[in-house]
Every structure is written in C-alpha cells, then in structure tokens.
Design a protein that fits this description.
Structural class: alpha+beta
Number of helices: 2
Shape: elongated
Oligomer: single chain
Strand content: 15-25%
Number of strands: 6
Radius of gyration: 33 Å
Length: 140
Amino acid sequence: MGHRRGQDRGQATLFPLMLDELEGQDALVRVVDAWVQALERLKAEGRAIANEAQQLMRSGASTIVSGEPAARPMRSLDSRPGYNLQTAVEMQSHLIVTHEVVCETSAQRQLQPMAEAASRALEQPWTLKVSPATWRSTVR
C-alpha cells in the first residue's frame, strides 16, 4: 500500500518548535525570567560603578565627568560638570573676535592665550588689563 495524497490540513508541526511557545505571556516563568535579566543588568551596573570608583581613587580626583570630553568639575558650580568657554571681545564694537572651549578649569591661566588669539585675529598688538571684578584683556 502506497502513500495517499490528500488535502493539507494546515498542521506544520505536531509540537511547538520552542518551549516558550507552550507558556502564555502572563506565565510565572516569564516574570522570573524578567527578574533574572534585571538582576543581571544591576550586577553589570554595579561592576561599572566599582570600576569608576577605583579609577577615581587612582586619579586622586574627587569627581569624574564621563560622556562629555570638554566638561570638567567646576569650583564655581560646586564641582558639578561644566564648560570653560573663553571669549575675547573687541571693546568698541562688542564683537567676539575669538573663542575657545578649554579643559582648563581656571580662567586666570587663559588670559594671555586669549589675548594673543585676539591680537592675531585683529592683527593688532594687545595689552592686558585685569580688574578685581572681572578678567579683561583689551586689544589696542
């Protein structure tokens, strides 16, 4: 007796291909799986934090800024991350003649480099004037 051909009944397989197909979406095993995955993520975050803490201790710093290469802990911001944007302004027109985002947290060390950059931009010699209230470099 040979194989008989008939109409397809639409049955692709006798059993589900995966065990997950046997469990409903609201089955307890799915909650446990989600809990285990969340626990693994927390462990990974804990390891990353421990690595950052070791890096902080080795560097001797009190703050690490990650994600923004130009940001630094700023004393004026209670050690929160910030930027040090230096600008040089021409006194008569009040136009910015040069600017730079620097990694230096102190503006005082940027006085001369910015005055020199302004002098080059304006093609004029420069003089440096400093007042207690504000730092100013004036190009003449």
